[in-house]
Write a structure and sequence with these properties.
Largest sheet: 7 strands, mixed
Helix content: 25-40%
CATH topology: Rossmann fold
Family: Belongs to the PC-esterase family. TBL subfamily.
Strand content: 15-25%
Number of domains: 1
Membrane topology: Single-pass membrane protein
Oligomer: single chain
Pfam families: PC-Esterase (PF13839), PMR5N (PF14416)
Keywords: Membrane, Signal-anchor, Transmembrane, Transmembrane helix
Bound molecules: 2-acetamido-2-deoxy-beta-D-glucopyranose
Shape: globular
CATH superfamily: SGNH hydrolase
Radius of gyration: 25 Å
GO molecular function: O-acetyltransferase activity; xylan O-acetyltransferase activity
Number of strands: 17
Distance between the termini: 68 Å
Order of helices and strands: HEEHEHEEEEEHEEEHEHEHEEEHHEH
Length: 394
């Protein structure tokens, strides 16, 4: 009896324990499986290829029949900083190049086809002035397909909103040069002497991004004006100087956490633009010279990566994207834009709201802008690639 009852007792303990551990095991197995499938999706999302073709490697081909995709004077929404022809640029060949991936052609940009995809949706570009140029380009690429009374433009700082009424769609821009909060967040008065970035604060911006169907982010040049940057981290009571890469890593991590906890990957889509290269020193592509992008009329031939494009910063982006649960697609426009020393606004833009004066134009080494791009121009190609993804990716 004694033996039997202890056996029974043992069995009574053993069965629930066995069941519990079986359940625990099953649960663990499911979690691991789920993470494995998330990881797989994430790799695929991040390293997007179009029908087996890497759209980011190729070369520029002169094709005046197809490019530019719109004319400077036919887009009423272009702003003065980008209208290089109107601002006096003497050459226009920079408008005639088509990006030709090595193994395929980019599909023709059909505004109506993209507008159909965007029906009832909001597409928002978030970031700095380079991102604003990409937004302006997208507006110009789409607006020609919409009759006058069915479109409108609104400025609601720090946002600009283009609405295609017939499609109930909007193409929006949100100014946030560091993505996280900073003292440069004012939409127009953002030229601050001492930058201060709140590396762990994002909600003030993030609440405007909630529920947006398609979000496109960028952030790079603002981190790079100095080797170090003043930041504040929790609990925000003291300012510290961080190296640019360290600050960038923390800020992108703040952003990644926001995306992971606010984005529904089944109904929303997030992109991150790789850095937009600069052409500040002509010795990089013409040994012995001492100019910049001014007077350049042709793309660089052959392989080229400028010293201004930090591989360390690019690696931080890639590692951040890989660590996320939401699959963010990385649009790698750096290399294709590297070749385009000819496509910057140079002297044909404004400074502090005014076109350059004759005196300023006589000093291109001081006054040429070799960071921003003319429109139509290189950012149209970034949008041709975004178009390809939005229209052809399931
Ligand atoms: C228009 O689009 C918004 C989302 O951007 C949606 O909430 C609204 O229901 C749409 N309206 C119509 C009439 O489809
Ligand atoms: C950081 O802030 C201090 C105090 O305002 C300033 O003196 C210093 O130049 C700043 N550093 C940078 C890298 O901006
Ligand atoms: C720019 O090009 C023009 C015409 O080719 C030339 O006359 C001028 O010297 C060049 N300026 C510079 C700074 O290279």
């Amino acid at each position: 009896m004694k033996v039997g009852s202890s056996k029974l007792y043992g069995l009574l303990i053993f069965i629930p324990l066995a069941l519990a551990s079986l359940l625990l095991g099953l649960q663990l197995y499911l979690i691991i499986q789920r993470n494995a499938s998330i990881k797989l999706n994430r790799e695929l999302e991040y390293e997007w290829v179009f029908n087996g073709c890497d759209v980011f490697s190729g070369r520029w081909e002169l094709d005046p029949g197809s490019h530019p995709l719109f004319r400077e004077e036919s887009c009423p929404y272009l702003t003065q900083p980008v209208t290089c022809q109107k601002n006096g640029r003497p050459d226009s060949l920079y408008q005639n190049w088509k990006w030709r991936p090595r193994d395929c052609e980019l599909p023709r940009f059909d505004p109506l086809r993209l507008l159909e995809k965007l029906r009832g949706k909001r597409l928002m570009f978030v970031g700095d002035s380079l991102q604003r140029t990409q937004w302006e380009s997208m507006v110009c690429l789409l607006q020609s397909a919409i009759p006058d009374h069915q479109k409108s433009m609104d400025k609601i700082p720090p946002m600009r909103i283009f609405t295609a009424k017939k499609f109930n769609a909007s193409i929006e821009f949100y100014w946030a040069p560091f993505i996280v909060e900073s003292n440069a967040d004012h939409a127009t008065k953002h030229r601050v002497k001492y930058k201060l970035v709140n590396l762990q604060s994002i909600d003030k911006h993030g609440r405007h991004w909630k529920g947006i169907d398609i979000l496109v982010f960028d952030s790079y040049v603002w981190w790079m004006s100095n080797p170090t940057i003043n930041v504040s981290v929790a609990p925000y009571d003291q300012v510290q100087e961080y190296s640019a890469p360290n600050a960038y890593r923390v800020a992108l991590n703040t952003w990644a956490q926001w995306v992971d906890s606010h984005i529904d990957p089944h109904n929303q889509k997030v992109f991150f633009m790789s850095l937009s290269p600069t052409h500040l020193w002509s010795w990089e592509w013409r040994a012995g010279s001492s100019g910049n992008c001014y007077n350049e009329t042709h793309p660089i031939q052959g392989s080229y990566l400028g010293v201004g494009s930090s591989t360390e910063m690019m690696d931080i982006v890639v590692n951040t994207l890989r660590s996320m649960n939401v699959g963010v697609t990385y649009i790698k426009i750096t290399q294709l834009s590297e070749y385009r020393k000819d496509a910057h606004t140079s002297l044909y833009t404004e400074r502090a709201g005014k076109l350059l004066t004759a005196e300023q134009r006589s000093e291109p080494n001081t006054y040429a802008d070799c960071i921003h791009w003319c429109l139509p121009g290189v950012p149209d190609t970034w949008n041709e690639i975004l178009y390809t993804y939005l229209v052809y990716h399931k």
